[in-house]
Design brief:
- The chain has 166 residues and is mainly α.
- It has one domain: Four Helix Bundle (Hemerythrin (Met), subunit A) (Up-down Bundle), CATH 1.20.120.450.
- 57% of the residues lie in helices and 10% in strands.
- Strands 1-2-3 form a three-stranded mixed sheet.
- Strand 2 (109-114) and strand 3 form a beta hairpin.
- Helix 2 runs parallel beside helix 3 (80-99) and helix 2 runs antiparallel to helix 5.
- It is globular and about 45 Å long.
Length: 166
């Protein structure tokens, strides 16, 4: 594949996931942010924050080539309005980074670490793909939390029990 097709494919896949992801985030009420389906499960608010935040990871991966858990901080978000604004800001940053992505950058290493401990050190191309999958996975987890709380699950890749797309 040539440079345009590889980088444009990442952008296209990323962009395709945005509308349904935003709908999920919009539907999570703040009063459920502390809810969790099991003691070992993430709280609904943290899961929603994670889904809103992953596009920021993509931007950082491309622009800085490294994420360090010791210096990476999560904002304290308490309202759906703030969560959506955080998501929208992260989407714009990721889009900007993806638009500037070159094939040369794809072969450069991405490093995920916790202080001096290296967790991942592999080509950016591998990590962008897995991060997109990670994002979709956690959005799917959100839809289960939504169903368990009688929140209408949006149509994602086709109709849901709550939204018919035909």
């Amino acid at each position: 594949m040539n440079e345009v097709s590889i980088t444009s494919q990442f952008y296209k896949e990323f962009e395709a996931e945005i509308p349904a992801t935003r709908k999920c985030i919009e539907r999570v009420p703040e009063n459920l942010y502390d809810w969790q389906p099991h003691e070992k499960s993430m709280k609904f608010g943290y899961l929603t924050l994670l889904v809103a935040e992953i596009p920021k990871w993509i931007a950082i991966m491309i622009t800085k080539g490294e994420i360090d858990f010791q210096t990476f901080s999560h904002p304290q978000i308490t309202t759906t309005k703030e969560m959506i604004a955080f998501f929208d800001d992260n989407i714009q940053k990721a889009k900007q980074a993806l638009k500037g992505l070159t094939v040369e950058q794809l072969s450069k290493p991405f490093v995920l670490k916790n202080g001096s401990q290296i967790i991942i050190n592999s080509p950016l191309i591998d990590n962008l793909s897995s991060t997109l999958n990670h994002w979709v996975h956690h959005r799917g987890q959100m839809t289960v939390y939504m169903r368990l709380n009688n929140i209408a699950v949006p149509s994602i890749y086709g109709p849901s029990a709550d939204e018919k797309v035909f």
